[in-house]
Each structure stands twice: as structure tokens, then as C-alpha cells.
């Protein structure tokens, strides 16, 4: 019995390539002819030296007399797909005019059915492209002007649909990459440890649904005086993607620093507002901050255009902290101090700060969302902060996720 490997070793693959039926060419990844078979030379009316070593579209450019010609663009797109995916690509029927050999400037209307396939190296990279072409010009002519043109139009529509699908897929991948980087940036900049409040606090961040909707919501918990006086803040940057995430990081860091030296939350927001004036992308950004004195049971707060925090007292009464609301951070042209208000609490009360993604819905007034939040907080007020935070998100966020980012901070006082 003969060894199959010895049989294949004796095959002259160069001769096989030249004898292949149909037009077949080998192209480098730079789209330079590496080799062509005899049928390719015969059908193209070219000599080998006119092709091998030359750039594909220098040899076969589009017909300059036909401004609507798309053959070269369509073929280039197909070859690019093969290079990027490492997979075969069959093209729709193409009109690709060819200059008549020996008659410069004279172009002949030709129709082709191409297929392009990769030749992979041992490393899995595309080393060569097999470009196989079947000419169907006579078939188009035989079907008559009407039916032939219909076939060409159908093929053109197929090509356009495929190009649109390819563009959409590239956009989807680009948006997915942007979203992934933005989320990683947000996660890196938002605080993960809460030494100031230990088991008293729970924080949640839920990104918006959809690759285009990564926003700039943020939260922060700052130890002001030995863990018995703390600052809790949330904010929201208008915009999407990496730019919003970057601005979010700048504002959060600035407020964290200002809170450590400010007399109260109003002064901290005043400093942050002045800073926001010089930060590109901070336009219309909002924030609210609270200073909590755990020893004296007092809570001081100030808001720059942000939804009001909610204080849930042990008896179930919900207090909306809306007595110190001012325009967004960069909206004040004068240096007047922002408003500040204070309230008291007893042990066991719960403070909730959040961003508008939790309560705003396009189809309803924001007061409806605020009432829904107050009801959920009151019903779950005896739960530990982690359980309470999960319950609020479950009850307030749509089943499929919100179209805006959501940040939530729950603090047991």
C-alpha cells in the first residue's frame, strides 16, 4: 500500500495552479499580484509581466469615463474583509469595465462574479489572497437589456446593503470599545472602600443600557473629622462616553478636596462651581453634597441643580432635602455663596443620594419618580443598607435597564 504523503509530495502544485479552470490570481496583503494562472491571462488579455509584481488597481482601475463606477471600491472592500477576518468573501455580480489591450483610452463594459479567500500562515495571519473571478459578460448580454440591467441593479443593491452592514458592525465594535474603556475609567475613579462609614453605607452604580450611553454619574464619601463627621456627595456630568467619564473624575476629585477644607457643603460647592468654569465638558453638570455630624445628629446640605436627597426617619416619614437648591455648577456668574440648609436626625434614620437616572422617565413627571423612590425607601427602611439599595434599584429601574446612568448611595445614620 502506497504512502499517501509520498503521493502528495510528488504533485506539482505550480502546474495545478496554472491549469485551474477559471481566472485565479494570488495577491499579497498589499494587493500586489504574486501570480496568475493561464486562464486569467487569457481572459484579461494581459501578459504575465503586465501583472505580476504590480498593484492590482494600477492594472485594473475604474473606468475614468464612468463617474458612477464602483467596481474598484467594491473589490477593495471585499479584499479588506478577507484580510481583517481571515474568512472567504463571495461578492455579488459586479460591473467592472476593463481597458481594451492595445487600445489606450478605450474601455469595454464587463461583468464579473468574484470570490476572494485567504491563505493563512502557520501563525494564523493572512499571507496571500486567492482572487478567483468568473466573467459573466456574455450571460448579461444574452439576457437582453432589461433583464441584464435588472441583475446588475440587484447585485448593486446587495453590495450597498453589505457595505452598510459592515459600517454598522464597525460602529458597534467602536462603541463597545468606548463603553468598555469608559466603564473601566469610571470604576477606577469611583471609591470602592468606605472606611468612613464601614457597614453603614452601600453604594451602587448602574451604567445605562446601550453602547452609546456611558455617562458621567459619580458618588463620593469623604472622612471629614475622624469618621464622626463625613461628607457624602453625588453628581452628574452631561454627555456620554470617555469625555464625560473624564470630566466626572475631575469634578469628583475637586469636590473631595474642597470638602476637606470647606466650612460647609455650600462653600464646597461654590469652590467646585468655580473650578467647573474652567473644565471643558462641565457645562450644566450637577452635584449635591451633605455634611453629616454623627455625634450631634445634624445634617447640612447644598445642591447645585441636582435631585434632592431623601432622609427617611425611623418612623417612616420621608423628608425631601430640597431647601437649598441652586443652579448647576457652572451657571452662577456671581461669587455669591450658594444656599445651605440643615436638618436633624435620630439613630436609625437613612439617607439616600442618587442621580436622575433613578427617578426620571420620559413618559412621566419627575415628581412621580420622586414619590416612587420615597415609597420604596420607607417600606424598606428597616433593611440593612446593602439590602435596601438592591431593593430600591429593583423597584425603580426598568426591567431592561435605564437609558441613563444611575448612582445610588444609602447611608444608615
By secondary-structure content and strand pairing, the structural class works out as alpha+beta
Distance between the termini: 88 Å
For the sheet with most strands, the description reads: 6 strands, antiparallel
Name the beta content range.
15-25%
Shape assignment: elongated
Question: What does the radius of gyration come to?
Answer: 34 Å
Q: Which ranges are low-confidence, i.e. pLDDT below 50, for 5 or more consecutive residues?
A: none
Helix tally?
11
Give average pLDDT, whole number: 82
Q: Please write the string of helix (H) and strand (E) elements.
A: HHEEHHHEEEEEEHHEEEHHEEEEEEEHHE
Helix content: 25-40%
Q: How many DSSP-defined strands?
A: 19
SSE topology sketch:
Layout: H1 4-9, H2 13-19, E1 23-27, E2 33-36, H3 38-44, H4 56-59, H5 71-85, E3 89-90, E4 94-95, E5 98-99, E6 107-108, E7 111-120, E8 126-135, H6 137-142, H7 144-189, E9 201-206, E10 216-225, E11 229-237, H8 241-261, H9 265-276, E12 286-293, E13 298-304, E14 310-312, E15 318-320, E16 325-326, E17 341-344, E18 350-354, H10 366-379, H11 385-396, E19 406-412
Parallel strand pairs: 13-16
Antiparallel strand pairs: 1-2, 1-8, 3-7, 4-7, 5-6, 7-8, 9-19, 10-11, 11-12, 12-13, 13-17, 14-15, 14-18, 18-19
Amino acid at each position: 500500500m502506497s504512502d499517501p504523503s509520498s503521493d502528495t509530495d510528488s504533485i506539482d502544485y505550480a502546474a495545478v495552479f496554472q491549469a485551474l479552470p477559471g481566472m485565479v490570481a494570488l495577491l499579497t496583503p498589499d494587493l500586489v499580484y504574486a501570480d496568475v494562472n493561464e486562464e486569467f491571462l487569457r481572459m484579461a488579455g494581459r501578459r504575465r509581466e503586465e501583472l505580476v509584481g504590480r498593484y492590482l488597481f494600477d492594472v485594473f482601475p475604474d473606468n475614468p469615463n464612468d463617474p458612477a463606477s464602483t467596481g474598484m471600491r467594491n473589490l477593495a472592500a471585499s479584499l479588506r474583509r478577507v484580510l481583517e477576518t481571515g474568512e472567504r468573501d463571495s461578492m455579488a455580480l459586479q460591473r467592472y469595465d476593463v481597458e481594451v489591450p492595445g487600445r489606450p483610452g478605450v474601455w469595454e463594459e464587463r461583468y464579473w462574479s468574484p470570490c476572494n479567500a485567504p491563505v493563512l500562515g502557520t501563525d494564523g495571519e493572512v499571507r496571500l489572497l486567492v482572487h478567483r473571478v468568473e466573467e459573466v459578460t456574455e450571460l448579461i448580454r444574452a439576457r437582453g437589456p432589461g433583464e441584464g440591467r435588472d441583475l446588475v441593479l440587484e447585485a448593486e443593491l446587495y453590495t450597498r446593503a453589505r457595505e452598510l452592514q459592515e459600517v454598522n458592525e464597525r460602529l458597534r465594535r467602536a462603541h463597545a470599545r468606548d463603553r468598555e474603556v469608559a466603564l473601566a475609567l469610571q470604576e477606577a475613579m469611583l471609591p470602592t472602600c468606605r472606611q468612613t462609614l464601614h457597614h453603614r453605607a452601600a453604594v451602587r452604580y448602574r451604567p445605562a443600557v446601550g453602547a452609546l450611553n456611558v455617562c458621567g454619574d459619580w458618588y463620593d464619601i469623604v472622612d471629614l473629622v475622624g469618621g464622626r463627621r463625613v461628607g457624602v456627595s453625588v453628581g452628574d456630568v452631561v454627555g456620554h462616553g470617555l469625555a464625560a467619564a473624564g470630566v466626572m473624575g475631575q469634578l469628583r476629585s475637586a469636590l473631595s478636596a474642597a470638602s476637606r477644607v470647606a466650612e460647609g457643603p455650600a462653600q464646597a460647592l461654590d469652590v467646585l462651581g468655580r473650578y467647573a468654569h474652567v473644565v471643558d465638558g462641565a457645562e450644566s453638570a450637577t452635584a449635591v453634597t451633605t455634611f453629616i455630624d454623627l455625634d450631634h445628629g445634624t445634617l447640612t446640605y447644598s445642591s447645585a441643580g441636582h435631585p434632592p436627597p431623601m432622609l427617611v426617619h425611623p418612623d417612616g416619614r420621608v423628608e425631601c432635602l430640597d431647601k437649598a437648591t441652586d443652579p448647576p455648577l457652572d451657571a452662577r456668574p456671581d461669587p455669591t455663596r450658594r444656599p445651605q440648609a440643615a436638618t436633624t436626625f435620630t439613630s436609625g434614620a437613612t439617607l439616600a443620594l442618587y442621580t436622575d437616572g433613578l427617578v426620571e422617565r420620559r413618559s412621566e413627571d419627575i415628581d412621580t419618580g420622586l414619590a416612587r423612590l420615597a415609597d420604596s425607601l420607607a417600606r424598606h427602611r428597616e433593611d440593612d443598607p446593602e439590602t435596601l439599595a438592591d431593593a430600591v434599584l429593583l423597584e425603580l429601574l426598568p426591567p431592561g435597564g435605564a437609558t441613563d446612568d444611575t448612582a445610588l448611595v444609602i447611608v444608615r445614620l
